[in-house]
Amino acid sequence: MITTTHYVALSAALFLIGTLGVLTRRNIVVVLMSIELILNAANLNLVAFARHYGQVHGQVFAIFVIAVAVAEAAVGLGILIALFRVRGTVLADEVDLLKW
């Protein structure tokens, strides 16, 4: 039987992988995917505890987080495409567009 502890452990693993991806990768696309992993880990926790306590508040909040994640991905990819057209790279270290 799968318990809430299993879901929390899976969520912690996803959160750790996402955090490591954000902190160690140079490619902005990989950083955006890692942020999505972090948001999915939070959603997994929300849904698991909503099921554990028998309420729907966590599931409703997870739907809002998914909507924000979709908007973040759309805006982030739009900015990334514009940045690639101007600079020709998607490496985070080489992006100095806002520096003086």
Helix/strand-derived category reads mainly alpha
Under the CATH scheme, the architecture is: Orthogonal Bundle
Beta content comes to under 5%
Please state the CA-atom Rg, rounded to the nearest Å. Answer: 17 Å
**Percent helix:** over 70%
Low-confidence stretches: none
Total of helices: 3
Sheet of most strands: none
What's the domain count? Answer: 1
Distance between the termini: 58 Å
Order of helices and strands: HHH
CATH domain class name: Mainly Alpha
> How many β-strands, per DSSP?
0
Question: Tell me, what's the shape?
Answer: elongated
Look up the CATH topology: Helix Hairpins
On the 0 to 100 scale, the average pLDDT is 92
Can you put this structure into words, describing what you see?
The chain is mainly alpha-helical and 100 residues long. It has a single domain (4-91), classed as Helix Hairpins, CATH 1.10.287. 78% of the residues lie in helices and 0% in strands. The chain is built from three helices and no strands. It has helices spanning 4-24, 28-53, 57-87. Helix 1 runs antiparallel to helix 2 (28-53) and helix 2 (28-53) packs antiparallel against helix 3. It is elongated, with a radius of gyration of 17 Å.
SSE inventory with pairings:
Elements: H1 4-24, H2 28-53, H3 57-87
Short description:
By secondary structure, the chain is mainly α.
Give the key terms:
0% strand, elongated, Helix Hairpins, single chain, mainly alpha, 100 residues
